[in-house]
């Protein structure tokens, strides 16, 4: 199963801007993998960033997990940092 990187997901959420309270509340909902509830928070917004974020959610819906559960159970990583680091290390060794 492929999971959308949590940190990139948050980055796209905060691009919407607006109320910090709404962003933090949305983050809590997303952490539980509640996609439809998240989209409902942004459907009334008219800004381009909000529309881009809902399109981002639609595009990656199948990759959005219950991050809290996945992390607590140790099922999978919620970030891509370890993989990105490994790729950099391989690249450095190849250059040698």
What is the topological layout?
Blueprint: H1 6-15, H2 20-31, H3 35-42, H4 48-60, H5 67-73, H6 81-95
Helix pairs in contact: 1-2
Describe the structure.
Helices cover 68% and strands 0% of the residues. The protein has 96 residues and is mainly alpha-helical. It has one domain. Helix 1 packs antiparallel against helix 2. The longest helix has 15 residues. It starts with 5 loop residues before the first helix and ends with a helix.
Sum up the structure in keywords.
single chain; 96 residues; 6 helices; mainly alpha; 68% helix; 0% strand
State the helicity in percent bands: 55-70%
Q: DSSP helix count?
A: 6
What's the overall geometry?
Answer: globular
> How large is the radius of gyration?
16 Å
List unreliable stretches of 5+ residues.
Answer: none
How much of the residues is beta strand, in percent? under 5%
Briefly note the structural class of the backbone. Answer: mainly alpha
Number of domains: 1
How many DSSP-defined strands? Answer: 0
Mean pLDDT, as a whole number? Answer: 82
User: SSE order in H/E notation?
Assistant: HHHHHH
Distance between the termini: 34 Å
How would a crystallographer describe the biggest sheet?
Answer: none
């Amino acid at each position: 199963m492929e999971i959308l990187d949590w940190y990139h997901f948050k980055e796209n959420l905060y691009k919407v801007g607006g109320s910090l309270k709404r962003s933090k509340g949305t983050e809590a909902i997303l952490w539980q993998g509640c996609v439809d509830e998240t989209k409902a928070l942004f459907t009334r917004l008219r800004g381009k960033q909000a529309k881009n974020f809902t399109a981002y959610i639609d595009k990656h819906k199948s990759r959005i997990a219950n991050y809290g559960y996945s992390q607590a159970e140790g099922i999978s990583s919620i970030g891509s940092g370890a993989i990105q680091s490994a790729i950099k290390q391989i690249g450095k060794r190849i250059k040698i």
